[in-house]
Amino acid sequence: MAEENQDGQEKTEEPTPKRLRDAKEKGQVPRSRELNTAMVMMASAFGMMVFAGYIGNGLATIMETTFQPDRDDLFNNMLVFEILRGLIWQGLLLIAPFAAIVFVVAVAAPALIGGWAFSGKAMAPKLEKMSPIKGLKRMFGVKGLVELGKALAKVTVVGTVALLLAWLFQGKVKALMGVGLESGLALGAQMFFIAFFALSASLLLVAAVDVPYQLYEHKKKLRMTKQEVKDELKQTDGKPEVKGKIRQLQQQIARGRMMESIPEADVVITNPTHYAVALKYDQMNMRAPKVLAKGAGELALKIRELAEEHKVPLFEAPPLARALYFTTDLEQEIPGGLYVAVAQVLAYIYQVRSPAQPGQRPVRPDPELPDEFEKYTKMGEEEQ
After folding, report:
1. Where is this region: Disordered (predicted)?
2. What digits encode the pLDDT tens for the residues 186-206?
């Protein structure tokens, strides 16, 4: 059964990316203490196996030099403190490599499932954690039962591995009584390291169950109601009325820029009244004619008025105007299928502006469109 929030709504929706980011900023990330414990224990066992000889030889050297002082040094109080400080420093240097491995693993292990999260909010005191009632709920609730189950699982797993190791090492333990001191210490150290590593590794079995459970619990805790998802979308994307207003302002700005570019057009192809498309072609800088402005209805009328005001030629070609309007966006080149039709119009406009012979009127073209643009022509007719 899905959880409910304070308003009684069921939390049936998976947490959104924003919800997960906000939770991480608050320090709420999945954590598995069982995984952390297992990794630190295994790192300790590995460090002991690698640095045991180095640490042992270093301690032996320290003890030899410490228990063989000169007689005069024993009566020098300041020198005794100097020797003690040197011994402490040498001891720290001996265990530094081992401590470094354990420290790195202890810091890196939590990041395996939840990543690092540094948040002052997580360290802030919370009165609800001091509530005895909520403390009892945690102890005797589902979470308390899960923790009890994990504790029993650890005891069972570690105890089973310990019994198995005792059975495997019983022959070697008996052999210790018949060997010398040095051989006995070496054999005992070997058994200790193997047992420590095996017991530490056994904790990974518990962690393998705990990690998926912690990930599930984390997502379950952050689940959202449908209303919370809607509210978040409004906060992220803005309310519909605000978005509509912004879109309207953007369209007004774009329309203003479009109108400013009309004086630069070479021709405005009209419907004649319902559509208007302003084109420009610069053969030195453009591969094909480009749409500077387009509009329908009142906007088309304004485009024509501006064109006439700035002496931009108007060319009436209803099918071509509708095809350009529906197939080309602002500041884009016209489709390849309309190259021939537009070229005929531009050639006519250039001839009108600069006739080959003064007083000669060029023949007005009647541009034909490819069949593929027939549907756009019909769309235009339906809207009129």
Report:
1. 1-30, 355-384
2. 777 778 778 888 888 888 888
